Amino acid sequence: MFVQFSRWGNSLAIRIPAHILRDVGASEGSGAELRVEDGQIVISPRATPPRYTFEELLAGITKDNLHDEQFVGPLVGNEFW
């Protein structure tokens, strides 16, 4: 597929058609690795890190991995414990 470079500020940019982004699972705000290989520009989508709910994170706490309370300094406001 032919694409044309366009000016974007001090850089050049290309538009990647929506169907190609969909095929590789990329969307606005997702990341990609950009490199040059044998004189060619290679763009590889970066996997999106998983997102966990608070409940899923809490479910991962066990007696074996629970740490003691951590002292982080004196109270400085209206904290209560």
Could you explain the architecture of this structure?
With 81 residues, the protein is α+β, with helices and mostly antiparallel strands. The chain has a domain at 6-59: Pemi-like Protein 1, Chain: D (Ribbon), CATH 2.10.260. The protein contains two helices and four strands; from the N terminus they run ββαββα. The protein has helices at 18-24, 54-59; strands at residues 6-8, 11-13, 32-37, 40-45. The strands form two sheets. A two-stranded antiparallel ribbon has the order 1-2. The chain has a two-stranded antiparallel ribbon with strand order 3-4. The longest helix is centred in the N-terminal third of the chain and has 7 residues, at 18-24. The model has no long low-confidence stretch (mean pLDDT 90).
Q: Can I get a quick summary?
A:
By secondary structure, this protein is of the alpha+beta class. It is built from two helices and four strands, in the order E-E-H-E-E-H. A two-stranded antiparallel sheet has the order 1-2. It has a two-stranded antiparallel ribbon with strand order 3-4.
What is the topological layout?
Layout: E1 6-8, E2 11-13, H1 18-24, E3 32-37, E4 40-45, H2 54-59
